[in-house]
TrEMBL record:
UniProt keyword annotations, A-Z: DNA-binding
Molecular-function annotations in GO: DNA binding; DNA-binding transcription factor activity
The protein, known as: MerR family transcriptional regulator
Entry keyword annotation includes DNA-binding: yes
Domain HTH merR-type: 1-68
Domain of life where this protein originates: Bacteria
Xref: InterPro entries: DNA-bd_dom_put_sf (IPR009061), MerR-type_HTH_dom (IPR000551), MerR_fam (IPR047057)
Length: 134
């Protein structure tokens, strides 16, 4: 497959494919003139890269797991990412519940609602102030 076909099949831009090749994540099977050609197995490799990126792995993390003919999964890193995702899920669930309560709270003033006040205190503890760029 040429680079345009791989780009269409993977949903990635040709510039991304060239970058991945430069980083050693994928390799072309050769060239015909100026066009790169890839073996069909590149799509599976790109799917692995996309999965890693989706869960927040860096390209360097991913490159350490990709072998020329397979993968060597870094189980410790995946456990760490799982713990991070669990934390994010818990935070998002608390936010969802808070929004649901705020949308349906019968109190005329949300600041007078004890449940809303507890949610504000919880949010105050969890939220980190943004750092100034000065």
């Amino acid at each position: 497959m040429d680079i345009a076909e791989v780009a269409r099949a993977s949903g990635l831009k040709p510039s991304t494919l060239r970058y991945y090749e430069q980083k050693g994540l994928i390799c072309s099977a050769g060239r015909h003139g100026l066009r790169r050609y890839y073996d069909a197995t590149v799509l599976e490799r790109l799917a692995l890269i996309n999965l890693g990126r989706y869960v927040g792995l860096s390209l360097d993390d991913i490159s350490h797991m990709l072998l020329p003919n397979g993968v060597n999964v870094d189980r410790a890193l995946l456990r760490q990412k799982t713990a991070e995702l669990d934390k994010q899920i818990a935070t998002m669930q608390a936010i969802r519940e808070g929004l649901h309560h705020a949308a349906n709270c019968p109190a005329p003033n949300h600041l007078a609602c004890p449940t809303f006040q507890r949610l504000l205190k919880l949010a105050g503890k969890r939220l980190k102030p943004r750092q100034s760029k000065l």
